[in-house]
Structures are given as C-alpha cells and as structure tokens.
Amino acid sequence: xxxxxxxxxxxxxxxxxxxxxxxxxxxxxxxxxxxxxxxxxxxxxxxxxxxxxxxxxxxxxxxxxxxxxxxxxxxxxxxxxxxxxxxxxxxxxxxxxxxxxxxxxxxxxxxxxxxxxxxxxxxxxxxxxxxxxxxxxxxxxxxxxxxxxxxxxxxxxxxxxxxxxxxxxxxxxxxxxxxxxxxxxxxxxxxxxxxxxxxxxxxxxxxxxxxxxxxxxxxxxxxxxxxxxxxxxxxxxxxxxxxxxxxxxxxxxxxxxxxxxxxxxxxxxxxxxxxxxxxxxxxxxxxxxxxxxxxxxxxxxxxxxxxxxxxxxxxxxxxxxxxxxxxxxxxxxxxxxxxxxxxxxxxxxxxxxxxxxxxxxxxxxxxxxxxxxxxxxxxxxxxxxxxxxxxxxxxxxxxxxxxxxxxxxxxxxxxxxxxxxxxxxxxxxxxxxxxxxxxxxxxxxxxxxxxxx
Length: 453
What we know:
Number of strands: 16
Strand order of the largest sheet: 11-10-14-13-12-15-16
Shape: globular
Mean pLDDT: 89
Strand content: 15-25%
Helix content: 40-55%
Radius of gyration: 26 Å
Low-confidence stretches: 1-22
Number of helices: 17
C-alpha cells in the first residue's frame, strides 16, 4: 500500500550564524510568549527532547550545548524549526493567538530569522491559492508549471532578502529540496487525488527522480528538506517493497553515519508483518553500532519472532452476535482472514465495502472471514447494531475486554484496522496481512494459500 506523505508547510526560523562567535558551545534562545497557555517549551536537540520552563509571564530561557544546525521546538500544539549556532544569543517573541503571523526575532541574525518567518507566510499564501487536491489532480505538465511558479516566487523572495551569506547558502539548498520533494510526490499523490491506478511519468521527471543522490551525509546533517526527502524515500521502499529492500539499497552507501540513522528508522517500523524477520534483523545489526540500539533491536526481535510465518497462531475465544463462544480451535480446518476493527474506527469502516467484495469472491472456497471488534464491553449493543446495519457477513466476534485482551497483545496490535492470515492448521501466514482494499496483494496471498492447501 502506498505510503502517502501529507504535504505540509513548515516554518524554518534561523537564530544565529555568526562565524566569529566565542568558542563557547552553548546556544541561547530567550523568548516571550503572549497569551501563554503552557508551562514549558521543548526542543529536539541531537535526538534528545529537552524541556525548558515558561514562567507565568510567558518568558523562557533555553540554553543547551549543540552544534550549528536546525532544531525543532514545540509549544502546545504549535511547532517550528530554528537554526542555532553555538555562541549566539537571540530572542523570539510570538502570540499563541497568531503563532505564525506574530513570530518576530531580534538579536543575532534577526534578518535571517525574520526572512524565514516571512517565507513561511508566503508559502502558506501560495498554498491557499491552490489546495493540495487541486494541485496534485493536475496533469503532469500543468502540475510542474504550478510548482515551478511557486519555486520562482519563493526564490525571488530569498534573493531580495537582507540575510547573511552563510545562511543564504544553506537556505538555497533547503529550498531546492523542498520543491524536489513536491515533484517526487506527484506519482503517488496523483493516484490518490485523481483516482487513477497508474501514472506514466514523463521521461524528464522520471530522470530527475532517478538522478537523486540519497547518500550525501553532509546535506543529511545540515539541510532539513534533504534529510526529510532521504528518510521519506527509504520509508516508501520499506512500506511498499519491504524493509529488506530498503536495507539493500542503504547497504550501498559509504557513510556509516547515514546507514545507522536510516537503520534506526527501519527499527522503529519493524513489525509483525515482516516476512523475512530473521534476515532483516541480521542485516540491521550490520548497520547499527550503538549498544542501546542493538539492545532495542534484540528486545523487539524477541517479541516479534513468535509471529514469524509458520508459527502457531495465538488463540482467541470470543462471543459472536448470538452470544455464542467461538474459538480459533473451532475453526481448525479452515483458512482464516481476520479483521481486527472497532465501530469508532473510520479507516476500519472504510475497508468494509472492500471486505464484503472479497468475501463474495471467495464464498465457495475454504476460507473464513472473521471480524473481531475491540470495542469496549459497554458498547456491545452499538457493535451488534452496526453489524446489522452494515449487513456484515462472515464470523462476527467481539473481544472480551476491548484492547486489553491476550489475542490483541500477542499479535502486538497497536493500531487498527489490522488483518491477519492464518492457514487451516492454525499457523500464521501473515501477522499483518494486506488490507482488502489492496486488491491484488491480498488476493495473491489468499490464492497462494488456497492452492497450497
């Protein structure tokens, strides 16, 4: 299933660029927040999350040791990114009622900071002129013209800005990859918004995408949009092709730093649907040197290995709509396609039409379609009403205690809908099977199961 990246406009605020600063490695950013609603502000610094107090008058004083670079800060539900340089001292003020519009910097590199605040508002205005659906529904040539027009507008804004040459060099690279990412997203976004299954890219656009270098360690460290592009590229491969394929491409890099950073992302998404778990874990270990990460990987492997294809499935015994108990043992001899869902889950309900169609196509085959609701016991009647209203078929069951039940825990289910494929012997085929809406993917898996049965 394509992993769709939501198009977002993120403000980047620079706070310092003085190359002649003292040798002190401490970064200082003070701030004053009007209409303050929270007692702390948090910074993401070198993979750490540091909190600093905000006093009753909305003032804060953030000091920490860091190299020059982009750092995200969060206040309540708002977030921004600042470019911090050791030895600099800067001040930022904003009003929570108009977070972006009120952002103002003074002190070190104020011009750089205020340019970036203005750039964010400019890009926001450009986005309002043509929303994401309209933009990505366009034919490729019209889409590229629109993107290039926006790029030229922002580049002109940069060209006329009175900012430091050091920061301008960084910002030029950052702008470049912001728009490269927009173009890279065209194929998947166009499929979604235009409602088409195939998109034939032009030779020029395909060549641009094929020619991107994802292995530049220095840009990964210093240019946020490049880093996001590289991480997104490998996440796409992991979700669409598998983590093993992503690791294979990463293995061609010379940079051990890049391999470890990207492998850390793969570790985060490593889940029970990975068909080649042992091979993936072994390859991840060749990329990861940090002892804590290796320990995390070993711990995750221990929990996932019970769900390797071929292992016996965790069991269940739940009540059906007629208040009869049904266990997995009762269904031995039948292949099972299990849907874990809830009445309150929008994505779950979106799969219902696809699930019904799939059921009808296999109604005379040796496979049972089992739906297990994780609604809380108090919502039992709501569940029964929806089963009747939606005319749900197959075997309809309800968990005995919502999420807090052994079957859900054993399958490491953290989000729904979740689909599971089990063979007639009760052995796992896939602990995280494709959704009914995947069409060919799930059909191919079911067909292979039925042929081998």
